[in-house]
Amino acid sequence: MGYNDDWESLMNSVFGPGGRMRAGGTAKKEARPAEKPGAKPAAPKPAGSAPRAEAPDLNKALLEQQKTLDKLLKKQNEALRGQDASTRQALEESRQLLRDMEADGLLAQGAADIPAAQLGSFEGLAAEVKQTVLGQDDYVDALVRAMRRPFVLGTDGQKARNVILLWGPPGTGRHFALEETARRMAARGLLQSGQMARMDLALYPDPGAEKLFLQDLYAALNGPGEMVLFDHYESCCPAFLRTLASLAVKGAAPLASRYLVNREGILIDAGTALAAGAVSRITPRGKYLIFFSHKGREEMAGLLGAGFVAALGDVCQTRPFTAESLQALAARLLNDLARLCARQLKLTLSAGEDVRDYVAGQHTGKLGAAALSGCCERIFRALSEYCLRQDRFQPGTAALEVRDGVLCFSVNGSAPAPLADLLPAVWDGGTEEVRQELDALVGLDEVKEYVFGLADNVRVQKRRAAAGLKTASLSMHMIFTGNPGTGKTTIARLVARYLKAIGALRGGQLVEVSRGDLVGRYTGHTAPLTNSVIESALGGVLFIDEAYSLYRGEQDSFGLEAIDTLVKGMEDHREDLVVILAGYTREMEQFLTANSGLASRFPNQIEFPDYTADQLLDITASLAAARGYRLDDSCTFPLLGYYQRRQAADSRTAGNGRLARNTLEKAIYNQSRRLVAEPDAPLDLIQAGDLEFDE
Question: Which of 86, 109, 95, 122 lies closest to 33, judged by CA?
Answer without folding.
Answer: 109
